[in-house]
């Protein structure tokens, strides 16, 4: 599906691994001796989550949510739909929302507010990539692997119409349509 004439490598596997390890070290320092619930946003965050948990030395649980604000488009519609919710009771627990990329922040703000309403001990946001320049709503992102420019990225969980998530490296679109 990926046409190499239209995509250029943005982050190689070694660079991604270094970002994941740096984020994991910060989380390990902040949550030492605490129980943590990681809430990963499907589908994109699954690869980042899998690599992240391998570097976490914490007592943790993993939960998943599935939200939609894109459909098959390359830009958010602005309307967030909850497709799958968490199953655990997070009252009094430390919650880390795990995302692969944040841009407008609308979807994340929806999830953050929803989880905060369940009275956890804390809720923080972890992302591999942050398009802070695209932010439409304020969300408190605590752990960021890398700030990125506004460009269309695929690979390592990031998709192009549900394809290319399985690429081990991250690419950017040279010529957006």
Plain-language structure description:
This protein has 177 residues and is an alpha/beta fold. It has a single domain (7-173), classed as Rossmann fold, CATH 3.40.50. It contains three helices and nine strands. The strands form two sheets. The protein has a six-stranded mixed β-sheet with strand order 4-3-2-5-6-7, with helices on both faces. A three-stranded antiparallel β-sheet has the order 1-9-8. It is globular, with a radius of gyration of 16 Å. The two termini are 16 Å apart. The mean pLDDT is 91.
In short:
With 177 residues, the chain is an alpha/beta fold. It has helices spanning 13-30, 46-53, 106-116, and strands at residues 7-11, 35-42, 59-68, 81-84, 94-102, 122-130, 141-147, 153-154, 170-173.
Total E-strand runs: 9
List the strand order in the largest sheet.
4-3-2-5-6-7
Q: Describe the largest sheet.
A: 6 strands, mixed
Percent helix range = 10-25%
Give the C-alpha Rg.
Answer: 16 Å
Tell me, what is the CATH class? Alpha Beta
> What is the 3D shape?
globular
What is this structure's SSE topology?
Elements: E1 7-11, H1 13-30, E2 35-42, H2 46-53, E3 59-68, E4 81-84, E5 94-102, H3 106-116, E6 122-130, E7 141-147, E8 153-154, E9 170-173
Parallel strand pairs: 2-3, 2-5, 5-6, 6-7
Antiparallel strand pairs: 1-9, 3-4, 8-9
Helix pairs in contact: 1-2
Salient structural properties:
Rossmann fold, alpha/beta, 3 helices, 9 strands, three-stranded antiparallel beta sheet, 177 residues, six-stranded mixed beta sheet
């Amino acid at each position: 599906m990926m046409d190499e004439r239209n995509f250029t490598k943005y982050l190689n596997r070694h660079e991604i691994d270094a970002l994941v390890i740096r984020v994991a070290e910060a989380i390990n320092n902040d949550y030492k001796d605490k129980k943590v619930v990681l809430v990963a946003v499907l589908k994109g965050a699954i690869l980042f989550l899998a690599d992240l948990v391998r570097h976490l030395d914490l007592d943790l649980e993993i939960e998943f949510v599935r939200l939609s604000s894109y459909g098959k488009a390359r830009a958010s519609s602005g309307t967030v739909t909850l497709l799958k919710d968490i199953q655990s009771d997070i009252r009094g627990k430390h919650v880390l929302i795990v995302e692969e990329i944040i841009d407008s922040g609308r979807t994340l703000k929806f999830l953050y507010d929803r989880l905060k309403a369940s009275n956890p001990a804390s809720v923080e946001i972890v992302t591999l990539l942050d398009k802070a320049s695209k932010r439409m709503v304020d969300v408190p992102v605590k752990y960021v692997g890398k700030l990125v420019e506004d460009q269309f990225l695929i690979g390592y969980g990031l998709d192009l119409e549900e394809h290319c998530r399985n690429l081990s490296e991250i690419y950017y679109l040279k010529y957006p349509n």
